[in-house]
Every structure is written in C-alpha cells, then in structure tokens.
Amino acid sequence: QVQLVESGGGLVQAGGSLRLSCAASGSTSNINAMGWYRQAPGKQRELVARLIHGNTVYADSVKGRFTLSRGDAGNTVALQMNSLKPEDTAVYYCNVADSRWRDFWGQGTQVTVSS
User: Fold this and answer.
1) DSSP H or E stretch at residue 70
2) 95 closest CA partner among 107, 86, 85, 83
3) Three-state secondary structure call for residue 16
4) What does the alpha-carbon distance between residue 3 and residue 12 come to, in Å, rounded to a whole number?
5) Which of 32, 36, 41, 91 qualifies as a FRET site for 78, CA 20 to 30 Å off?
6) Are 72 and 90 in contact, with CB atoms under 8 Å apart?
7) Distance CA 30, CA 74 (A)
8) Could you give the C-alpha distances from 34 to 19, 31, 43, in angstroms and in order?
9) What phi, psi does 23 have (nearest 5°)?
10) Rounded to an integer, what distance in angstroms lies between the CA atom of residue 34 and that of residue 12?
C-alpha cells in the first residue's frame, strides 16, 4: 500500500502561480509512475502531468505552464503551476502507480483560479 499526503493549492488570480506537493509513504520502492490528475465540477478526472520511468507526459492544456518534478529520494513529487487560468480550477489529485501498476490516490486539493 502507498499513502499519499498532498499540500499546496488554494485561491489565486489568473496569471498567478501555485505549487502542489505530494509525499508518498509505505510501499514506495520501485514506483512506476508519479503525477497529478485533476477533476473539475461536472467533468471526468483527467491527466495533468505524469512521470513514468524518467519520461514526463503533460496534458496539452498545461504544456509550457506547468512543471512536474520528483524529489531526489523518489517519494515526493511537485507540480509547479504558472500562468494559471480560470479553466485550471479543479480538485487536483496526486497519483502513484506502484511496482505492480496499482494506482493510489491522494485525498485531493482544491485549486481555484479567479478571473
């Protein structure tokens, strides 16, 4: 099992920045993937950014604005979000896929971008 604790998020004006952090504990050896998803009201959860074996994938909507980074210890991941837009408003979820590709999720953190 993997436990995830998220921090960051909040309310920011359009054009501003926020940083989300996620710390994993438990069975964190040989993690296959770490990243962030988001879910806006009335919409399905969608990929924001994910690091899979050294390769980072970004949603087209966030490319050039968001940056995903993993800590040296390998059990933390951060999402730096710049030039935020109102359409980025959502609950953001940290995600980890373990050595068996089982998905684990954080509790979610709200990001609200005002226009």
Assistant:
1) strand 66-70
2) 107
3) coil
4) 28
5) 41
6) no
7) 9
8) 16, 8, 22
9) -115, 130
10) 25
What values do phi and psi take at 75, rounded to 5? -115, 15
- Rounded CA gap, 105 and 97, in Å? 9
> Tell me: the pLDDT tens digits for 18-32?
999 999 998 888 899
User: Which residues share a beta bridge with 26?
Assistant: 2
User: Look-up: residue for tokens 């940056």?
Assistant: 67
Report yes or no: 3 and 26 within 8 Å, Cβ to Cβ: yes
Q: Is 95 exposed, middle or buried (0-12, 13-18, 19+ CB in 10 A)?
A: buried
* pLDDT beyond 90 at 73: no
Range 59-89 burial, b when 16+ CB lie within 10 A, else e:
eeebeeebebebeeeebbbbbbbeebeeebb
Residue range 77-95, pLDDT digits in tens: 999 999 999 999 999 999 9
